[in-house]
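Quick question, first post here. What does this chain look like in 3D?
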Amino acid sequence: ATGNPKIRSGAAKGLAHVYEHRRDPIAAATYYRHGLADVMEMRDFQVAHFFLLDLARTALLAHLPERAARLLGATTNFPIPFTRAFEFEGKILVPDRAAIVDRTRSELPADQFEIAYDAGRAIRREHILAEVDDLIAGIQAGSGRDPAARLGLTEREIEVLKLLAEGMSDAEIGGKLYISRRTVASHVSHIYTKIDVPSRAAAAVWAVRHNLA
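> Answer (accepted):
Ran it through. Tokens below.
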């Protein structure tokens, strides 16, 4: 093993990326945490910004959107990297901040997002690793969540599925949850893929079987 924190952080980033794609948020967050610790040691705060975005995305994978919003807020205490990027096995690993923000907003009521984001902005740099430790503890605590979550549905998708099972249209669901019809349609499409059903009727039956309706 090398003692060079720059090399260690790159290796940690690559491993975290692999585990994230395997939908293992505990392992992914743990490796991202190792990489973040190394770049913090080097005071490379631009790359730390990237790691926090990666961790926010991992929080979403673990169905913890409030944690994701806190981490997004925390990135404001780190310089925005314009040209820095990690490369692993020929792939450039640059997190898409806009996409992460949009997804986090879609999974939280607007006021909850703003509260969590502002709380993240108040996190000092010297406390950021403790925040990540709290995230990892939260992921571990949630590993025994209800069956729907274990199948990969987010909290917002569960809300949409429940309303769909009640017979609501996309427009009606959007009005109920204060999100756009287009966002609802996207959630419904993701639900179909995740629970492997072809239609609203089949999704409603699945919801009943899993005590969601």
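The CA atoms of residues 3 and 143 lie 33 Å apart.
DSSP finds twelve helices and two strands in the chain.
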